[in-house]
Amino acid sequence: MDFAFSAEEIAFVKEVQQFLDDNYSPEVMDVTRENMAQICDTPARRAFMKKLAAKGWLGLTWPEEYGGANADGVYEYLLNELLSSVGAPQIGKGVGIIGKTLMRHGSEKLKREFLPQIINADIEFAVGYSEPNAGSDAAAMRLKAERDGDGWVLNGQKMFTTSAHFADWYWVGARTSPDAPKHNGITLFLIRMDDPGLTIHPMPTMGKERTNMVFFDNVRVSDDYRVGELNKGFQYISEALDLERFTMFTFSPIKNRLQLLIEYVKTATRNGKSLKDDPIIRQRIANTAVEGEVARLLGLNFVSAAIAGGKPPTSEASCYKLYATELSQRIADATMDLAGPGSQLCLGNKTAPLRGRAESTYTYTVIDTIGGGSSEVQKNIIARRKLGLPKNF
Question: Could you tell me the fold of the domain covering 249-386?
Answer without folding.
Answer: Butyryl-CoA Dehydrogenase, subunit A; domain 3 (1.20.140)
